[in-house]
Amino acid sequence: VNSEKYLNFKLRFSNDDSIVGRSMWENEGLARAAFVLVEWANNMGGLSKRFGEEQLLSLFVSFGLGAIPGLRRKYIQKPGGDIRAHSKKGEHLLTFIEFISSWEFRVRSSLSFAEIDGGILTRGEWKAFSEASLTSLLSLLTNHRLDLPMSGESGMATKLREYEPRVIQLPDNVINSGLEKVRDALSRLSECKDVKLRKVNSKLVMVSAIGSSEQLRVLSTYIYPPAPSRETVTLRGRIDAMATFTYDRIM
């Protein structure tokens, strides 16, 4: 019943005149990504009375607007009364989770929401949530996907799964200069159309594609490969070994 849950979530903002509320109401992609974020956070058990859904959503929108001091990359624009699209919802969600899991976020002395007409948090209310999200980020780095509480494969549940970050881990040198070959190989192996790769950081690459359910299933077997054998995982460690193992399977 993810459809009902999502609609109830969206309706929360129907009469909300704040920047967060108007952003959610005008931008369907942002609202869906925010719903996945809230579902993930509640499933993870990281929210509390001091740092709950309201604070998390304010932070997510502030991050998207480039309103976090020291982080000025924008993923969305301030609401302006028109319906908007969100072409980078997956990247927005993934980089936000990476940010809230970081040591730099955990040790901040305060969080200000002044640019979205909000207040200030000064007592480290976000630290417990950040520590909990770090475990999920480590799972993402090793399993290449978030553990989202989505059930069923039809209707709104399927649409919401489109906003789960799909990432592939590759060696640094490949990310820096070999992504075109990887894209061509993934297109050939899966027969998906419009395969796109976008660098997220030195370890992760965002993957998007268009195809049938069977083509996307095949693509996923290369994005999320089985774990390498113990013989393959040498002193380089699991993370580096997974990147090389994934690349070797594709090429």
TrEMBL record:
Lineage top rank: taxon: Eukaryota
Signal peptide residue numbers: none
Xref: Pfam families: DUF7636 (PF24642), DUF7752 (PF24934)
Domain DUF7636 stretches: 160-251
Domain DUF7752: 27-113
Name of the protein described by the UniProt record: Uncharacterized protein
Organismal lineage: Eukaryota, Metazoa, Ecdysozoa, Nematoda, Chromadorea
